[in-house]
Amino acid sequence: MNQGFKSDLAAPEQRSVVQKLNHPTFNKYSVEVYIKRDDLIHPVISGNKWRKLKYNLNQVAKNKTIISFGGSYSNHIHALAFACQEKGLNSVGIIRGEASNADNFTLSCARKWGMDLVFVDRKTYRERSHLSFHKKLQTQYPDGVIIPEGGSNKQALLGVAEIIDEAKQQVAFDTVLTPIGSGGTLAGLALGTRGINKVIGISVLKGANYLQEEVKSLLAQHQYSENNWHIEHDYHCGGYAKFKQEHLDEILQIQQELDIPLEPVYSGKMFRALLKMLEAGRFESGSNILLIHTGGLQGLHGMVDRKLLKASDWQLPRF
Ligand SMILES: *Cc1c(COP(=O)(O)O)cnc(C)c1O
User: What is the pTM of this model?
Assistant: First the structure.
């Protein structure tokens, strides 16, 4: 039995729902579109971050210290802080930027859930994957377990792959669509398909050609070399966390038409990309497309506070 949210990270029976979506453009191009609502998988630990943390944290003994990295508005930092509190782990967030950001929505949640924040300048932050930096952290936190930025590592792929295992029992699909940042989610989904379905990642970063190698090397850690996945680079809307008013208008219209809560950094760009790709004839009629809602709605708060978005347009989560 599920014992409530306390056991969610450990509960193998935990699933997110799949919903069928209706939209005139889907009818026009004769495709069926479904969405796996990983934004609903946990009230706080949202979407793909829940999936990526699952096996990373299940292996760690109580009272250890998890160390990870992120920006001031990071979904990963937000999710990690709560997950560590639930699991009885200490957490340290190495944050890129100014300590004056410590009171923003994302980081005040993280602090409330017990995370220690360490602010570093951009130059130091660039060393977040360097062995020398990790050694320094390991000296500072002898019981520390380091998880990379975004949580994307070998263990993360196993959790993400379960999205596909679950979805196969819920609906028939041939193509999977996901937004991608670091590539861990795309890699995990590809792994989950075992080479059978096509997986398309919509890059939310501009000119991120390195992602190809990143995804390949994550998959190589699981001896996976199938080529049933690829990355679309034309739907970033200007770059990471960037967008113009016209993009926002499109995303808000989609949100209203589908009645699914979106944000403009990941899910909004994925939905916009789907419509553009349909209009460009990129999907055969009769395709069954499964979208992954990777969550990340907490990030809306930071964008509203910075006046990039109007609060009343979006569904801001409360914790
Ligand atoms: C982190 C994140 C992504 C990107 O996932 P990667 O595994 O880094 O590619 C996508 N969507 C949301 C909402 C995220 O928070």
Answer: 0.94
